[in-house]
């Protein structure tokens, strides 16, 4: 899942980003409204965690512009004001969810995950292929009932491939969805991650390489 955090309180923004990355999400951070507005329209994010009161472009404007654009990005709006009127106004602007400060971090994570599941195409809460079961909310993977120990990036790649339901996913798409903006676009990290993922998943193979195009899940038993 790719997430953008737009928050001018740097310590809070960095803490949110660190926490979400520990949950295996690819997270970019913008510290003002101008940078946040630009990032939100340059990269396709699943979720934007958006502070309402931002310097530069106001959070309300970013939210309204995203809603008007028809983007599939879900918006979780944060604000220091938690009155009912403020929540209603934020939702009317196009926000998908609203969380007043201060908040419990576990609640923020749960809300981000819930919004991410509402992305299009909608993904089931548990992803399955043959005897492989992937539970993104619990960060658990099993094959034939046995746990599979995956790194955050391996888990992210596998999740994207399973959500594609057999469609080819390019290396560029995986890089965009699983890694953040600081990753070298010319890196071989996707190929290396898929290679180690295949080894951990074992036989019969569940990931196919489509030469010149990318990767897809295998048609098990075909």
From TrEMBL:
Residues 124-219 form the OmpR/PhoB-type domain. Residues 124-219 bind DNA. Keywords: DNA-binding, Phosphoprotein. The modification 4-aspartylphosphate is found at residue 51. Residues 2-116 form the Response regulatory domain. InterPro entries: CheY-like_superfamily, OmpR/PhoB-type_DNA-bd, Sig_transdc_resp-reg_receiver, WalR-like, WH-like_DNA-bd_sf. SUPFAM superfamilies: CheY-like. Pfam families: Response_reg (PF00072), Trans_reg_C (PF00486). The keyword Cytoplasm does not apply. PANTHER family: REGULATOR OF RPOS, TRANSCRIPTIONAL REGULATORY PROTEIN CUTR. This is Response regulator transcription factor. It comes from Micromonospora tarensis. The lineage of its organism: Bacteria, Bacillati, Actinomycetota, Actinomycetes, Micromonosporales.
């Amino acid at each position: 899942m790719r997430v953008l955090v737009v928050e001018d309180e740097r310590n809070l923004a960095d803490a949110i980003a660190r926490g979400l990355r520990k949950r295996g999400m690819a997270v970019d951070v913008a510290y003002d409204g101008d940078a946040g507005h630009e990032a939100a329209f340059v990269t396709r994010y699943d979720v934007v965690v958006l502070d309402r009161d931002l310097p530069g472009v106001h959070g309300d404007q970013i939210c309204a512009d995203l809603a008007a654009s028809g983007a599939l990005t879900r918006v979780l709006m944060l604000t220091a004001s938690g009155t009912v009127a403020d929540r209603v106004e934020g939702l009317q602007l196009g926000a998908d969810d609203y969380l007043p400060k201060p908040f419990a971090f576990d609640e923020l994570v749960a809300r981000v995950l819930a919004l991410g599941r509402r992305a299009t195409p909608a993904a089931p809460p548990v992803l399955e292929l043959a005897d492989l079961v992937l539970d993104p909310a619990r960060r658990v993977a099993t094959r034939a009932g046995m746990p599979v120990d995956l790194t955050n990036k391996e888990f992210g790649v596998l999740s994207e491939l399973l959500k594609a339901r057999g469609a080819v996913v390019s290396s560029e798409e995986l890089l965009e969805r699983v890694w953040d903006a600081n990753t070298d676009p010319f890196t071989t990290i996707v190929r290396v991650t898929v290679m180690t993922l295949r080894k951990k998943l074992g036989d019969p193979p569940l990931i196919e390489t489509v030469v010149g195009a990318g990767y897809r899940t295998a048609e098990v038993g075909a």
